[in-house]
Design a protein that fits this description.
The chain is mainly alpha-helical and 161 residues long. It has helices at residues 18-41, 46-69, 75-96, 102-135. It has one domain: Hemerythrin-like (Four Helix Bundle (Hemerythrin (Met), subunit A), Up-down Bundle). It starts with 17 loop residues before the first helix and ends in a 26-residue tail after the last helix. The structure holds fe (ii) ion.
Amino acid sequence: MNTGFSSHLPRALIVNVAEIDRQHDGLFSELAALKAMCIEQNALPVARAEALFDLLVTHCATEEQLARDAGLDFRKHHEKHERMLKGIRKMLNEVEGEALDVFSLIRYIDYWFERHIADEDKDLGYALQLAAQAEDPDCRLAPEPMWGGGAGRAMQPGQLV
Ligand SMILES: [Fe+2]
């Protein structure tokens, strides 16, 4: 099925908030491009890796802004972002200092992206949809939460995401 995104964003990781999904898609595409360049060069293209890191920082800020605008408590999610960014920054420095191989970094980023979207961003996406619906009753929720939860949970605007 065509989701309108590149083939790099797994369908199961769509959170149904356009801006977040678009950014996730961009992050996965950039990560795939970085991976291909690493294989080709057997080294880290530093400028490209730093650009990906900047994109990730911007993305985290976008999610935080969306949550704040919707009146959601983002503290727990913010801590997860901080931990993820700190971990990736540390590994990036190590690869740049030749203390770590580039493919360990790629595996680490891959793991964090997928796990974070599945564990945190899907709940955020659902909470943002609920908040949008509370603002505008004509705004419709995605028909089925794609992760098999969500609809049955008592999630309210303002809750911890
Ligand atoms: Fe997030």
